[in-house]
Amino acid sequence: MVLWGPVLGTLLVVIVGYLCLPGLLRRRKPQEPPLDKGTMPWLGHAMAFRKNMFEFLKCMRDKHGDVFTVQLGGQYFTFVMDPLSFGPILKDAQRKLDFVQYAKELVLKVFGYQSVQGDHQMIHSASTKHLMGHGLEDLNEVMLDSLSLIILGPQGQSLGASCWREDCLFHFCYSILFKAGYLSLFRYTKGKEQDLLQAEELFTKFRKFDLLFPRFVYSLLGPLEWLEVGRLQRLFHKMLSVNDNEEKGNMSNWLCYMLQFLREQGVSPAMQDKFNFMMLWASQGNTGPTSFWALLFLLKHPEAMRAVREEATQVLGEVRLQANKSFVLKLSALQRTPVLDSVMEETLRLRASPTLLRVVHEDYTLKMASGQEYLFRHGDVVALFPYLSVHMDPDIHPEPTTFKYNRFLNPNGSRKVDFYKAGKKIHHYTMPWGAGVSICPGRFLALSEMKLFILLMVTHFDLELVDPDTPIPPVDPQRWGFGTTQPTHDVRFRYRLHPAE
């Protein structure tokens, strides 16, 4: 008779020993950064990190300085906090640091998409071809039509000119940008009414997934939540099916280009569906939250709102909505809005918090700006968190927690690009889109979408907070490190469409 209790107990001891032994045996070698394994075997500092990444890294920097290695769930991460030393990591002339493999593992886990050889380069190539220049101009036209459909309805002006409406600002911005972005890229064509219903249903499901996303990435979901994530993934794959979308023949050139590449590589339609889900999240997961913060900052800073509206009048003239018509806006004006550009850059500085990760393929020596050298161990992960090390550095950005709409403007109104740390000009003075090989390939489209939305809101609507004294909500600590942060709670506001001619 087999004694299963002792057998299982022995097996458990072996598994725990296998997981914990590398952490227990690891010691700091000469030239390596300070090592902080935490008190929990294997887990290390994982719980504190996941609870509030920003506060955890502040404590670690105060304790260890600008370079340190921490254990997080069996993996060792070396954080570099000196932005003057980012250059060698981002350029990596020796090719010892890899972003692609880490990204492949993440998208497989989150979206179910199995990457193929060369698809990372293909995404950047597609974005250069279709999300810049004439391709971006074409998408801006489609985006303007989509925003008109979402905001005004299928028949044109549907909001009473003198009727105040009340809503939650975060939900308002997120839902409008998501639905307009979805319709612009996937171009659903079952008729405007059906398009709106489809976009609304997709956003409702997307928001459920989005709320679970941070804990999903960290594998912290409960049993029922894991089931819910799986159900949502399957639903997205079905709703974004390449077979359904190709039958309509109206998908954006950007997506068509990428899907054609996947077909040529022999990728199955089912895997292409998962690719579509990944690209939907990548393109629409941050524009709505960023637009929320931008509008909220403008509403809380009347001088900034006045400056943006005055600039809009200068570049657009006096705009009026015609009865039963869509919005009309000279899209060339998007290139002549330095004040709005500064507002968006300041918003991203305050609320974008990406984490840049590189896997160490070979032992790698980093020479810091100070001249000191550190050895990074093969198999570890190098991490940059520019929100703390750049965006919130008072040497680079005085009063870093304060919103200053003209922070990125020179006295003559041109864009300010000269920022300094320790008396040295710094190249990476903000990094909301990442940098190097991991820079967001869709950043130009995302910025155009958000600017277009903000321009429509400030030129065609009266806007006000329900409670002018309501404080700006804090950031949800679970969202640190995942692109644009989100608020812990929403804010009520009122809006009223200007009367049509």
Key attributes of the depicted protein:
six-stranded mixed β-sheet, alpha+beta, globular, three-stranded antiparallel β-sheet, Cytochrome p450, disordered N terminus, 501 residues, 10% strand, 18 helices
Strand order of the largest sheet: 1-2-3-9-6-4
Structural class: alpha+beta
Tally the helices: 18
Number of strands: 13
CATH architecture of one domain: Orthogonal Bundle
Major sheet attributes = 6 strands, mixed
Task: Tell me the CATH superfamily of one domain.
Answer: Cytochrome P450
In which range does the helix fraction lie? Answer: 40-55%
What form results from the Cα inertia axes?
Answer: globular
Keywords: Endoplasmic reticulum, Heme, Iron, Lipid biosynthesis, Lipid metabolism, Membrane, Metal-binding, Transmembrane, Transmembrane helix
GO molecular function: heme binding; iron ion binding; sterol 12-alpha-hydroxylase activity
GO cellular component, one term: endoplasmic reticulum membrane
InterPro entries: Cyt_P450 (IPR001128), Cyt_P450_CYP7A1-type (IPR024204), Cyt_P450_E_grp-IV (IPR002403), Cyt_P450_sf (IPR036396), Cytochrome_CYP8B1 (IPR030686)
